Each structure stands twice: as C-alpha cells, then as structure tokens.
Amino acid sequence: MARVHPTPEIGEIVEVRQGREAGRYMVVIDRSEDRWVWLADGEGRTVERPKKKNVLHVRPTGKRAGKVLERLHTMGKVTDADLRYSLRTFHQEQSKDAREDGGDAERGVD
C-alpha cells in the first residue's frame, strides 16, 4: 500500500531532506495539485527563482510563516525580506525551545 504524503500548505515552513539544499529550512510559496511545492528562503532561493521540490523530499515542521501568509492575503505577493524575517523568527524560536527543553541533556548533565 502506498504511503500518502500530505502536500504542505502555502506559507508553511519545511525542512528540505534531499538534494543540494538538504537540511535547510524554506517556506512554501506555491504548490500544485499533485506532488510539487515551490520553496524559497529569500536568500539563495528568491521569490523570483523558487525551487521546485517533490513533497516526498521535504519535511513539514507544522509551523506557518505568519508574515508571509499576511502579505499574500493583503498584497497577493511576498517579498524576499518577508521570507528572511519569517525564517529568522522560526530559527530563534527553535533555538529558544532547544535551550529550554534539552540544554542539560545535550551537554550530558543529569
């Protein structure tokens, strides 16, 4: 039986799992009905040149880039600066959560 992989929503932050950009976080800026998403991070992959990626090759984080969604609804487009801001905020939240949850565990302190 084939595994069903849900297509990430527009504005969702995903981790790239395959390819040259593996390990990087990007924002879904467009998607197709089948299995493709277009990703951008505002730096290496800009809004003008997003990366087309198979949904099997990304891992959804469950987080939404609120500023990106807001801009898409109000202006109908998003800027590279909006993407950079959203990803920077996401990384800050991730590092804050890591410090709170596993700071002692990572250092081997009980």
Automatic annotation (TrEMBL):
GO terms for cellular component: ribonucleoprotein complex; ribosome. The keyword Ribonucleoprotein applies. Residues 89-110 are annotated as: Disordered. Keywords: Ribonucleoprotein, Ribosomal protein. The keyword Signal does not apply. This is RNA-binding protein. It comes from Kyrpidia spormannii.
